[in-house]
Design brief:
By secondary structure, the chain is of the alpha/beta class. The chain contains 8 helices and 10 strands. The protein has 2 domains: 165 residues, Rossmann fold (3-Layer(aba) Sandwich), CATH 3.40.50.300; 74 residues, no CATH class. The strands form 2 sheets. It has a 6-stranded mixed beta sheet with strand order 6-7-8-3-9-10, with helices on both faces. It has a 4-stranded antiparallel beta sheet with strand order 2-1-4-5, with helices on one face. The structure holds adenosine-5'-diphosphate and magnesium ion.
Length: 248
């Protein structure tokens, strides 16, 4: 294992049934990289996220977070839920949701300190949601809720954020807002791993891409991953927008 890597996956196989969802997948991600995971439906993208969080049972293989087995790295990796997947039927403010990220750091007899409040404020600033701090979370758009969850993950002290299709179904303004937040987080040294379904923007948005369909077909800079023979093999007939995407 190499402790310079934020994430290292070695020979990972995960099965729910007889056919593995992921088969012998190995790669690494450097600290502070913004990485996109691409591949068709059912390719195992979400399963890979769960494996990086330590949420699925592995048949074979290892996942290291900053050089330590994922089981011993609680709190360093945070999952940002897809927008609209959380149904808020009780009143809680944006500030409260982000403060929840601090609770893991507090003992039961401790109150929130000034430092906790400062961290919450800074996290809200980073995702550009400070002006909404007193708003009920249920009254925000899906894209705004997603930014609040990113702030909570940052307040928690997570060094790696995983986002599963954050751009699915958002309008252009929200897409730009999320992109801004990703680049802010990257500037702050956070490592970001994003499942992304839109090939047309993948090479523009990410430093590095992982192309998966059960196996890892390619990993590296977009120019290396966007090769005709690779995309044809992985997407088969499902790839329509094509010729403008290929760089070779
Ligand atoms: N909890 C589960 N139980 C059984 N099969 C699952 C489960 N989750 C995912 N799968 C199967 O594993 C494969 C990969 O799924 P998933 O990781 O969700 O792919 P993706 O996110 O790329 O669409 C699919 O064939 C899917 O049907
Ligand atoms: Mg998925």
């Amino acid at each position: 294992m190499n402790t310079d890597y934020a994430i290292q996956v070695r020979n990972l196989t995960v099965s729910y049934g007889p056919k593995p969802a992921l088969l012998d997948v190995s790669f690494f991600i450097n600290k502070g990289e913004l990485v996109g995971i691409i591949g068709p439906n059912g390719a195992g993208k979400s399963t890979l996220m769960k494996a990086i969080l330590g949420f699925v049972k592995r048949d074979i293989g290892e996942v290291f977070i900053f050089g330590k087995p994922v089981e011993h790295t609680r709190g360093l990796v945070a999952y940002v839920p897809q927008r609209g997947t959380v149904d808020w039927d009780y009143p809680v403010t944006v500030h409260d949701v982000v403060m929840m990220g601090r609770y893991g750091h507090l003992k039961w007899w401790q109150n929130e300190t000034k430092e906790d409040h400062d961290i919450v404020d800074r996290s809200l600033e980073m995702v550009r949601m400070s002006e909404f701090r007193n708003r009920q979370i249920g009254q925000l758009s899906g894209g705004q809720q997603q930014r609040v969850f990113m702030a909570r993950a940052l307040a928690q002290g997570a060094k790696i954020l995983l986002l599963d299709e954050p751009f699915a179904g958002v309008d252009a303004a929200t897409e730009n807002a999320i992109l801004d937040v990703l680049s802010e987080a990257k500037k702050a040294g956070i490592t970001l791993v994003v499942v992304h379904h839109d090939l047309a923007t993948a090479s523009e948005y990410f430093d590095k891409l992982l192309l998966i369909k059960q196996r890892l077909y390619a990993a590296g800079p977009p120019s290396l991953v966007f090769r005709q023979e690779l995309l044809t093999e992985v997407y088969e007939g499902k790839l329509k927008v094509f010729t403008d995407l290929i760089k070779d």
